[in-house]
Amino acid sequence: MVTDLDKIFSNFEKNEIFEDKSYLQPNHTPKQIYHRDEQIKQIASILAPLLRGEKPSNLFLYGKTGTGKTLSIKYITQEILSRSKNLSFDLKIEYINCKLKKISDTEYRILAELVRRMGGEVPDTGLPTESVYTRFVDLVDKNKKIIVLIFDEIDQAVKKISDDFLYNLTRLNSELSKTKISIVGISNDLTFLDNLDPRVRSSLSEEELVFPPYNALQIQDILKMRAEKAFKKDVLSEGVIEKCAAYAAREHGDARRALDLLRIAGELAEREGSKKVLLRHIDESNQKIERDKILDVIRTEPKQFQLVLYSIINLVKQKNGPIFTGDVYNYYQDLCRTYKSDILTQRRVSDIIQEFDMLGIINVRVISKGRGGRMREIKLAINNKITEKAEEIIKEALEYG
DNA sequence: GTCAATTCACATGAAAGAGACCACGGTCTAGTG
DNA sequence: CTAGACCGTGGTCTCTTTCATGTGAATTGACGA
């Protein structure tokens, strides 16, 4: 036992792989951004009026995940802020990530977060939303300011709340006398604007910009640049970067994915005590990312969700073919009885199944069997190995939970 | 045989309830001068 | 008289239930050839 620990720690101390891992961390902002010159220039020229104290147009950025939207906007805001030291007014640029649950599940929370960023205080709950609005207005309108609000993954927020939240935001400007607010929306859903209230759409997207996916070569450039700083010399074996890039390019040119892949591969190599990152490590890394992501979701899911998923897994194993909503619900009911759990209505279970679909754990298709009715056809979207592991996790959670 | 109506087994939507959490303002209580 | 304890009201949030309406195609049954 002790010797094992010794081995682990000494491997770690030797640290023959990484020079500075932070260059591969997702939140690292590099000094130089490759292959986004055009976009950065455009954003900069749109936001430039800030430095003259004018309100810039609202801006909307599109692009799949990992195409550098967040990176570019953060880079530009930094540049702008660093040039704004001696301006005669307050310039505030706030970045809000709507994907983080605690912050942005509801209108109230987003607003509360805004107030806090502006230096005010709001309780987590208990106040009417309206009063948070007035608090925000009071706080912001005390002296002349220009505020840029950046909403990352704004589509998530709108899905959860509704678009009149955005309408309220765009309307805020008319309630403010001294301060002006600009909004930058970032979305990776290209159809997002189409389903928006027209009033909101026109005011929100005065300017639009699309971030195309990186191709494999561009990802290679990015990886090379970061890998140079992150890894020690000659640690990466031939073709590692190329392989990472290829994997990521397959996933709609997601550079973040490529970086994760490389970082995890490095960690795996390090853990093994290997002196080099091999091609094999990339494959393992790819699997590990996938597995960890899914198992983590499953682990943290509430009990009822686990029961439903457990039903699905078992049914798929039994029937060895597609299964349907009704099957799942029946099995689920039995399962609830054996574990003495409350039984949810079919309506609710239906929603739960849909959520698993969204998480990518199962694949769901609505089919009609004519007179046999209309239902979802459910398949597992994860491979057997992960499924088994998932089953174990759930079983454990159910017996000890 | 053809065509519209019917029917199945859910999907999908909207609204509202339950229970947990919490802020705010008013009232009560006890300690202080 | 005042600070702090206590309470009631009204707000949010999440997870659910209830009620209502929608839906795609196999089946049915009336109808005409």
Descriptive overview:
The chain has helices spanning 2-14, 37-47, 69-82, 101-104, 107-117, 129-140, 154-160, 164-175, 198-204, 216-230, 240-250, 255-272, 279-300, 303-319, 325-338, 346-359, 384-400, and strands at residues 59-63, 90-97, 145-152, 180-187, 207-211, 323-324, 362-368, 374-380. It has 401 residues and is of the alpha/beta class. It folds into 3 domains: 37-211, 3-Layer(aba) Sandwich (Rossmann fold), CATH 3.40.50; 215-291, Helicase, Ruva Protein, domain 3; 301-400, Orthogonal Bundle (Arc Repressor Mutant, subunit A), CATH 1.10.10.10. The strands form 2 sheets. A 5-stranded parallel β-sheet has the order 2-3-4-1-5, sandwiched between helices. It has a 3-stranded antiparallel β-sheet with strand order 6-8-7. The longest helix has 22 residues, at 279-300. The two termini are 30 Å apart. The structure holds a DNA duplex (33 and 33 nucleotides).
Compact overview of the structure:
The protein contains 17 helices and eight strands. The two termini are 30 Å apart. Helices cover 55% and strands 12% of the residues.
Topology diagram in text:
Blueprint: H1 2-14, H2 37-47, E1 59-63, H3 69-82, E2 90-97, H4 101-104, H5 107-117, H6 129-140, E3 145-152, H7 154-160, H8 164-175, E4 180-187, H9 198-204, E5 207-211, H10 216-230, H11 240-250, H12 255-272, H13 279-300, H14 303-319, E6 323-324, H15 325-338, H16 346-359, E7 362-368, E8 374-380, H17 384-400
Parallel strand pairs: 1-4, 1-5, 2-3, 3-4
Antiparallel strand pairs: 6-8, 7-8
Helix pairs in contact: 5-6, 8-9, 10-11, 10-12, 11-12, 12-13, 13-17, 14-15, 14-17
This protein binds a DNA duplex (33 and 33 nucleotides) through residues 105-106, 108-109, 123-129, 131, 302, 304, 324-326, 344-348, 350-351, 354, 366-376.
